[in-house]
Every structure is written in structure tokens, then in C-alpha cells.
Amino acid sequence: MFKQFLSKLPRKSSKSDNVDSASSNSGNCSASSGNSVQRSNSVNPASGRSPSVKRMSSAVFPASVVTGVEPLLSFKDVPTAEKQNLFISKLNLCSVVFDFNDSNKNAVEKDLKRQSLIDLVDFVASGSARFSEQMIAGVCKMAAVNLFRVFPPNYRSNTPGAETEEEEPMFDPAWSHLQIVYDLLLRVVASSSLDAKVAKKYVDHSFILRLLELFDSEDPRERDCLKTILHRIYGKFMVHRPFIRKAVSNIFYRFVFETERHNGIAELLEIFGSVISGFALPLKEEHKMFLCRALIPLHKPKSVGSYLQPLTFCVIQFIEKDPKLASIVIRGLLKYWPVTNSQKEVMFLGELEEVLEATSMSEFQKCMVPLFRRISSCLNSSHFQVAERALFLWNNDHIVSLIAQNRQGILSLIFPALESNTRNHWNQAVLNLTLNVRKMFLEMDEVLFQTCQSKFDEEEAKLKAAEEKRKLMWERLESAAGYRPVAGNTAVLVTPVPIASPIIVDGLN
Question: What secondary structure does DSSP assign to 210-274, as a single string?
Fold first, then answer.
């Protein structure tokens, strides 16, 4: 029976060719570049053959999805008054979900659904669509059925070293359909004919939360589409903006303080980079709390390297909006400064340089003492990349200017580290950079440099004298313990002596 239905489908070979062409030309969902799905021309039967196609669709799909106008018709083959009904009919047909783990299963039905999705995108892209409330509801329902799903557990993130190893991205086998659904949703949300007051009833808080859950997808193409769509929703629906910010904050909190596993942190931060740049001045207290409670703690997880660049951009945007936040950011970096992870420490030093470039003198003075105590520790690091990156700070003119004007307090903090490097550090590059920094301070203020040198020599002499005194004291204690008789439970220092003869116990050989 099923073969009979297949034989009644007109122009089957042309249909397969066009579907294959559409599949090969599909692109990623991206609003910034203006790219969308590239598709072949829709394949539709002639009006005289529509009864056979209708029988085909009724056999393949449930009766509930083919009611109304025949969904396999082309929009150009129906009058304008019927296009809305055809749009809804195609949406109903596309609400059927297939299993893509087996590429041979329901192959014909999948092709029909994909062609219907392409027709919907083409119709919206033509600009002739005027979205009624029923059409908006249908788009949201179809998108929810196809997109909202539960992801399998991410076992790779639980393996040791997963945050540093290069991993191959995992691609969803259903992407050939999902990508077109995302493209349709994006075009509808971005359409100038979409009434936000009507659409907000369907693009509601529940819809947005489910959309945010999809950011944990392991498919980078899906996360890229979600990033574009969420950004458009944020711009289109002003009433939802506070809710979106709160929901994203909750994702960050759960990631930092509970799971430390999420695939979409970088994409969410990229969205908020542009959101923060649009904040009005003066900044609201809510926005400052977002910086302190959500963004700064994101430096804590081990996987910070995967999203450090957009995170740094967000932080810099805040400082440029309100320079008084610079000292708060620097203290936050010091709070979460890595102790045992050298690669992460190198990344922190890079971000610190960008933050200091945007820091004013008054804010720098508020935190320069704890800051340069940390930098001093980095200068003495046995890991040459950490020491080298810390010394590179003196290549930045703005940072050198801040240091020069506060050299009285800074040089005394880092001089011991510089002197120790010149004498003991094993790496030649670090040694050369250290000598350059010492020369810079010497030329900056020779008197201050000589004062610090004298103080360092005095401290070193005191430490050496204390060490000699301690060593002499221990020698005297050992000597006294060797001559004083032991009585009762007196504790003594005993030096083990190797036994070279048999033990004699109470006269027994």
C-alpha cells in the first residue's frame, strides 16, 4: 500500500534532486552577516495533480496535520486570501517530529517536511507575510515542538582535564531540520510586520526560559543561532528585558556555584556584551549588582579560558560606563586569582592589563597595594610564562604612567622580587625582562631605587644573621644534649648511629 502511494507522488526524481540541493546549500543561522538558509526552488505539483499529492500527505502524516488547505501546495499557487491558511497548514505539518538517528527511517516524510519548512522561510523572507495572532501562535507552537528537548548527559565534561583538552564538537543529526526552524523563528521575530504587543503573549516567560535551556546544546551551530534569536528577542520585546537578565544571571549562578558545566556561557556573554554597551547612564544598581554577583564570580571555574574573551569585554564595558567600578573589578580578580593553575594565571594577567588600561588614577590608588603584592608573587613564579607575562605589564604606557606616579609605594613592594629574579631565576628571557624593568625604575627615580636597594641589603643581612644565630643555637643544643645525663622522662635529641656489631642484652651473646 505504501509503495502505491509513492508511485502516485508526481515528479519524484525532481523532488529528490531539489531536496539534495537544498541540503547541500544550507548555511548557519546568523543575523549579523545576514546569511540564511540557501534553498532550491520549491517543488510543488501542478494544480491538476494536487489530489494525488493530497492522498500522499494524508497517508504519510496524521489526519490532524493536513486539515484545511493542502500543505504541499506552493504559496504562489493559492490566492492571497488563502495564504494565511496555507501558512498555518504547513506549520501543522512541520510540527511532526522524526527520529534522525536512523537516516533511512521516514526518509520521504523528512524530505516533505523539510521542503515545507523551506517554503515557510521563503514566504516570510519575501516580505509579503502579515502576521495574524493565529500565525504567530502557530510559529511558536511549531518551534517549541521541534526545538525544545532534553539533552543527553554530557559525559565528556566529567572527565579529568576536560577543561583544557581540545574536543571535537558534537553535531545534532537533526540539524537539517532544526536549522531551518531556527531560521524561520529568527525571520519572524525580526520581521517589521510582527506586532510585539500581540507576539508577547506567545513569546512569553515560559518560551524564553525553554529557549535559554537550549544554550546548553553541544552543537556550536545551534548555540550560534540561539545567540542571534535571543538578541533579537531582547531588542524587540522591551517588556521581557528584566526577566531575560534575571534568567541569564540564574544560569551563571548555577554554573559557578553548582555545576561548573555549561556549553553556552560564551554565547550568553557575547549577547550581554552588546546589552551592557546599551545601558543608560548613570548605571542602575541592578546592573552594578549583575557585575559583582554574576560576572566577576565567572572567573572562578576552571573552564574560564573557554569564555574569558567575552567576559573581559563585558567587564571593560562596565568600567567604560562607570570608571568607579575599576577598583571593584580588580579586587574581584584578586579574590579569584588562581593559586595552582599557571595557565589560568597567565590569562588573568592578560585581563588585568586590559582592566588597568581603562582604570583612572584615583581607582588605581585604591587597590594598588594588594595588586602589586600579587604581581610581585607572579614575578617570582618559577613558571616562566607567568613571570614573563607579569613583566610585560611594563610594556604598556598607561600602566607605566600609573606606576611612575605611585612609585614610592610600588617599588618597595616589588623590588625584592626583581632582585631575586636577577640572581636566581632560571629562564634567560625572564632575566632579561627583569633587568629592563630594574633599569626603568633606576632611570625613573635613582634616589628611590638606591633607597630600596639599601633597604633590601639590610633586610638580607638581617635574615642571614638570624639564620646564622639559629644554626649556632641548634648546634649548642645538640652539644649540650650529648653531655648531659638523662634522668626520668627528659626528652633528648638523639642522633642515630649505624649498628655494626651484634646486640648484647644483659650478658647474653
Answer: HHHHGGG-S-HHHHHHHHHHHHHHHHH-GGGHHHHHHHHHHHHHHIIIII---S-HHHHHHHHHH
pLDDT tens-digit readout, 115-130: 999 999 999 998 877 8
Residues 264-283 have pLDDT tens digits of 999 999 999 999 999 999 99
Rounded CA Rg of the chain: 35
Question: What pLDDT, on a 0 to 100 scale, did the predictor assign at position 107?
Answer: 84
Classify the C-alpha dihedral 54-59-63-64 as positive or negative: negative
Cα separation, 266 vs 269, whole angstroms: 5
- Cβ atoms 85, 69 nearer than 8 A: yes
Please spell the DSSP secondary structure of 96-108, one letter per residue. -----SSTTTTHH
**Distance (Å) of CA 387 to CA 299, 403, 434:** 21, 18, 9
Task: Return the biggest CA–CA distance within the chain.
Answer: 124
- pLDDT at 128 (0 to 100): 77
Separation of alpha carbons 293 and 249, rounded Å: 9
For CA atoms 169, 174, 176, 178, give the dihedral sign. negative
3-state secondary structure of 156: helix
Amino acid at position 432, single letter: N
Mean pLDDT of 373-381: 94
* 269/309 Cα distance (integer angstroms): 9
Task: Give the residue among 251, 295, 257, 250 at the shortest CA–CA distance from 276.
Answer: 295
State pTM to two decimals. 0.78
The amino acid present at 509, given as its one-letter code, is N
| C-alpha cell, 59 | 497517508
Alpha-helical runs (H) found in 10-64: 12-24, 50-60
pLDDT tens digits for range 410-427 = 999 999 999 999 988 899
Q: CB within 8 A of 274, min separation 6: which ones?
A: 231
Query: CA 61, 63, 67: angle at the middle one, nearest 5?
Result: 110
Query: What does the alpha-carbon distance between residue 487 and residue 208 come to, in Å, rounded to a whole number?
Result: 82
The whole-angstrom separation of Cα 505 and Cα 396 is: 77
The counts of H helices and E strands in the chain are 22, 0
**Is the separation of the CB atoms in 185 and 154 below 8 Å?**
no
